[in-house]
Every structure is written in C-alpha cells, then in structure tokens.
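User: Here's a structure from my thesis project, written as structure tokens. My advisor, Dr. K., wants to see whether a designed sequence matches the one we expressed. Can you design one independently, without my sequence as a hint?
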C-alpha cells in the first residue's frame, strides 16, 4: 500500500459525523479520532488529509440541492432560500437548517439537537414481540436468540421498509429463520381470545397490523418532534423552509415517509428518496464529495491562469483576471459549482475557421507569457467556424473574444463573441477527451 500511495499527489478523506458528537467528550475531537484511524493504516501520512467540516445533516443538504430532480428540473434555489435536511439513519436522526448563500454555497445555521432515534428503534421494538410470543409457545431457552435473528433477517427488514397502513392486509407474517421449526401456537383457535394477539402459524409469527404499526410510533414521534422544533425556530423569525428534504436509510421506509408527508407536505415542498438521483443511504457521502470537489475547484480557479494562442500568432496571451461569472452574481441560483470566466481578445484574418489552443497555465509561472511548454499543465484545441453566423455590422475577420467558463474540474465551456458582445458560437470543451 505504501508504494501505491507514492503515485498520488494527495489523498483526501472526507468524513461526516453526527451533529451531536461535539457535545460528548469521548468524540468531541472527531477529526483527531479520524486521523488516528486512517493514519494507522499507512506507513507515510504526509500526502493524506482528513476533512471533517460537515455534519451528516449539512452534507445531506448539499446532496438534496444538487442531486434531486427538483433541483435539476427547476433550479429554483436562490440566495436566501432555507433548506431543512433530515437524515434518518440507523441510530440517530440528524436535522440541519442551511441557507443558500450564493452559487454553490450553503451557510449552516447553529447545530440543532440530534434526536437519538432511527430505524434501529423499530428493530428493538420488534425483537420484544417474537421473543414474548416464542416464550409463550414454550420455547424458553432459545427465544431471545431466535427473536434477535428474526429482527435482523430479510423477512422483517423487507416488511419494515414496505409496510403501509393503507395496504389492507389484516395480519403481517414474519417467517422464522431457516433451520428453525416451531409448532403452531395456540394449538386451537378457541384459545385466541384477542384478535390483536400475535400467534405462530405455519412456522411464521403472525402479527396484527395495528400491533405491527405500533412498532414505528416512537421513531416517528421523535422525528416529528425534531422537525417541529425546526419549524418553531423558523416561525419565530417569520421564515419558512423552501424545501424539507429527507434522506438516509430510514427515508426509504414507506410508513415513516407517509406519516411525514401527511404532516408537512401540505405546507412545505418535500424531497425524499424518490426524487434523489443517488441512493438515499449515500446522501451524506455524496454531499461530502460535492463539498470536497467544490473546494478543489475553487483552488483550481484561484491558482490557475489561462493562456490562448491562435494559429497565426506565436505569442501566448495569458489572462491575469479570473472572475466569477456575472450571471452568478446577478442571479445567484444554487448550482453545483459557481462559474469562473476568463476573457481573451483575438482575431483571425485568414480563412473561415479560427483555430485556438487553450492553455491552463500555472499561476506561479513567471514566464507563463512566453509559452514555456514546461509550465503548461494541459491544453485544448478549439476550432471556431466563423461562417456559422454573420458578424453583425462588419466583416467576419473583426476582433472577437473567447470566454472560457470553468464549470467543473473536467469541463470548460467556451463561447466566442463578436466585438459587440453578441454570441456567435458556443462549444463545450472536455479536457479529458480533447487534451493533446
């Protein structure tokens, strides 16, 4: 592994923790604990960095804004909008309030109380049910272990995820694990004195739907309490959330989401796993990756200048001003990445095609303007067909401008404009495929 590590410039580990961890001394220094865990796996650690900037709720908010069909379809999120993200996990539910600060940037509000509840509370409630039923059926020694095996088995976990109050099924059947056989209990129908009583039939625990529904109650109530707390905080300052997003494994539980939609859906737009382009369980990982990519892109834009050279010119022109695109300033919608723009003036007086080579050049290169190939990081060739549109009010050989828009680490948009600013040609350049 040590030899493999030498081939990397740097390896970043992005980690998110529960928003409540800072309150507990044992895990208060989450970054130090993460470094101890990661660094112990490598001989040299000088090329490894640990990032613990985001809580699970904050990372989820980034994913909800960037990777949902709501965001991709309407781009309706703008500066000042409020995003409430609710990450329903196994043991905790992280809720965060974030404000869109501008293009690609979220400002988190002070951390909210994390509720110590998740889908594991449903599993624990269920474990007690077959445990008591099996003991009543005479299985005293192995009842606890068998009940635990059932609570982790595919029959229960699948039923837990798909159960809905509106399904119309009177009783829920949870099959005993393979290799275990238990006789019917009670043995006679006359011994069933309550229709809600859990029984054993055909090697399955048969549970009345009202009893099965009650397993979810504690989990749902605590999640609702957390969201209600958020709504109350926002109401005090006369604000409402632009969107309420749910992710994490618990958000794929039909019963939980049905309850939450009924409670909040009429007043607040909701995003859940059905609108996410990634798995709900991976929302925090995706959001953390987006934040990391955003940081890398900002550094790339700050530390890189762009040079351009036409076929007829031997001098490499280097742009010294790389600015955030004006459209982001005027209409700061929440895009995955803000757009940086570099502008170059150039002209072509021969033929119908202007051919340019675009160079990202090291910002620290003192001799960048000389076109020293040793200092050039990558290059792309852009061909502009000047016959696509006629130049307004003059010859097609007049001076025009190339605008290079950095919209991602692997994507640059190139626009050619006339001297009057009218767009005449647009081409997307992908450095991964067009690099020479």
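Assistant: Designed independently from the structure alone:
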């Amino acid at each position: 592994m040590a030899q493999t590590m030498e081939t990397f410039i740097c390896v970043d580990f992005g980690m998110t923790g529960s928003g409540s961890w800072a309150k507990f001394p044992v895990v208060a220094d989450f970054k130090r604990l993460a470094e101890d865990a990661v660094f112990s796996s490598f001989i040299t650690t000088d090329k490894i960095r640990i990032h613990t900037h985001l809580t699970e709720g904050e990372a989820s908010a980034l994913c909800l804004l960037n990777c949902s069909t709501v965001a991709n379809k309407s781009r309706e999120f703008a500066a000042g909008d409020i995003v409430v993200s609710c990450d329903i996990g196994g043991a905790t539910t992280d809720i965060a309030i974030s404000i869109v600060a501008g293009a690609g940037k979220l400002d988190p509000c002070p951390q909210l109380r994390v509720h110590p509840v998740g889908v594991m509370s449903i599993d624990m409630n269920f474990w007690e049910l077959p445990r008591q039923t099996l003991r009543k059926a005479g299985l005293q020694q192995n009842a606890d272990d068998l009940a635990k095996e059932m609570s982790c088995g595919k029959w229960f976990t699948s039923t837990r995820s798909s159960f809905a109050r509106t399904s119309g099924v009177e009783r829920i059947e949870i099959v005993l694990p393979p290799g275990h056989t238990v006789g019917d209990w009670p043995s006679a129908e006359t011994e069933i004195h309550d229709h809600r009583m859990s029984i054993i039939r055909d090697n399955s625990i048969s549970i009345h739907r009202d009893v099965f529904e009650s397993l979810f109650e504690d989990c749902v109530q605590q999640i609702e309490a957390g969201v209600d707390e958020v709504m109350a905080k926002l109401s005090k300052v006369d604000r409402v959330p632009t969107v309420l997003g749910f992710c994490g494994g618990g958000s794929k539980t039909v019963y939980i989401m049905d309850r939450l939609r009924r409670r909040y859906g009429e007043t607040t737009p909701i995003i859940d796993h059905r609108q996410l382009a990634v798995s709900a369980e991976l929302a925090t990982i995706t959001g953390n990756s987006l934040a990391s990519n955003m940081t890398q892109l900002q550094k790339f834009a700050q530390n890189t200048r762009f040079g351009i050279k036409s076929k007829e010119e031997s001098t490499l022109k280097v742009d010294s001003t790389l600015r955030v695109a004006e459209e982001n300033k005027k209409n700061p919608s929440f895009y995955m990445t803000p757009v940086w723009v570099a502008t170059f003036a150039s002209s072509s007086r021969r033929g119908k095609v202007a051919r340019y080579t675009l160079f990202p050049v090291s910002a620290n290169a003192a001799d960048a303007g000389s076109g020293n190939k040793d200092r050039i990081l990558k290059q792309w060739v852009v061909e502009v067909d000047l016959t696509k549109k006629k130049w307004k009010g003059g010859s097609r050989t007049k001076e025009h401008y190339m605008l290079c828009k950095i919209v991602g680490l692997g994507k640059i948009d190139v626009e050619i404009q006339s001297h009057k600013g009218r767009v005449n040609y647009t081409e997307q350049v992908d450095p991964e495929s067009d690099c020479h």
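When you compare it with your expressed construct, this may help: The chain has 13 helices and 19 strands.
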